[in-house]
What does this fold into?
Amino acid sequence: MDIVVENLTKVYGMQRAVDNISFRVNTGEVLGFLGPNGAGKTTTMKAITTYLIPTEGNIWVGEYSIYEQPEEIKKRIGYLPESNPLYQDMPVIDYLKFVGELQGISSAKIKDRIREMVIVCGLEGEKHKKISELSKGYRQRVGLAQALIHDPDVLILDEPTAGLDPNQIVEIRELIKKIGKQKTVILSSHILAEVEATCDRIMIINKGKIVADGTSDDLRKRAQGKEILKVTIEEADTDTIFEKLKELPTVELVDILNKAKNSFEVQSKRDDSSRRHIFNLCVKNGWILTELTSLETKLEDVFRELTYN
Amino acid sequence: MRQIWIITKRELQSFFDSLTAYIMLIAFLGFSGLFTWLYGSDIFFTKQASLQTFFGVSYWTLFFFIPALTMRQFAEENKTGTIELLLTRPVTDWQVIFGKFLATLLLIAIALVFTLPYYITVAKLGNIDHGATIMGYIGLLFISATYISIGLFASSISNNQIVGFLLALAIGILFHFVFGFLSMASSGFVSEVLYFLSLGAHFESISRGVVDSKDIIYFISIIFLSFVGTEAILQKNRT
It folds into this structure.
């Protein structure tokens, strides 16, 4: 089921939380929402789940519009809200049964579905406990289980791995990847590595607007443009090397990374490469070049560049 | 209908799990039993085979108890955010409101069923007016439904249970005393309108065994208006 967001705008008082954004997510795609706090990620997700009524714009989930057939959308969506609200006084099993019934799972199938969710989400030992007795990680699993129980076509996960330990995070990421093959998934996160690891496509939102959209490679390439090299030269005077490197015709910037080890960061001019020149420089001076590596632009840098005022 | 019943079941379960239901049942039966049989103008004092005293006491007990039951129903969901998960299920706002309403009404009905021994005992003691008694019970159910719908509305307004409780009481007092008092203080048409708005007048006539469509319309209108108000607030929270 495809999700189509058309000119979505949401205004709170004077603030435009989401400002006229449009995008499309195709079936089988896992889209990651990135953005600083208050960028409009949660607002957009809430609008897709039909919970928030947008100020302007429309959202289509499959052939259904959030205005015309919200009930049809609700049947096909699994939603894990940011704060993962659950009925604290209910045992896990009862809660999953309640959700399953509301989602219209037939009473013949509901037991099997609950059993499956308990296994998939690793709740076997906790299934009879009250939700209030569970740790944050287990609650998060219950949150995932309730979102998945009716086998929805669309999954909206707002920070799905918040509060989980590293092992659980890996498990949940694997699970999302597996599920994402047949479904449409939108997830949000602050953790760039997570989005990179789980999502086919990344969308960076800032101040209610989409500032970047593409695969992680696309985004990196866009920010790259310039070559950045890490250079380490042994047995020579740091200042001399620094001066000489700066004199190279293709070099724009030189930065000393580590004085003791004589390592430098060399940024070339746009569309130029300095590798050859650096090698020749070392040969000419008889320096021992021990490291010459290309530094990849990290997604963090892309993110910072795009979302920093 | 199925969706309403699923919500009702969960709400009832929550009443019983949190002991609220047991406390309410015991306190209600204790109060009504005490005043019907042992204290004040009880059966033996009035020497009449009638449940008028019981209805009067229940009327006031429920006035305080029902807001205590309903105050949690929306306020808690607003506070923890579970309302968001509930409303993103394939249910309408109306089904949620009605499901919660029905749960509390069922709990009150259970409490009233437990008072049937009073009825049977009094009927054995003397010549009871069956019609008036049955109408008295129906009247209590209508009054309860009215209080519940007001209580749900009050609960939906904020995420604070105490606010929900006090607001429900305040609205109840408005319908009980303020309209009655103003009616006495005014005259002519205005007085009649205010008298019509007063809750007590309608319960009185119903508990005397008189079924007037005016009373039924009155109760149903308040219930309906409270539902509309609650729905409007649920909608408002989503914009």
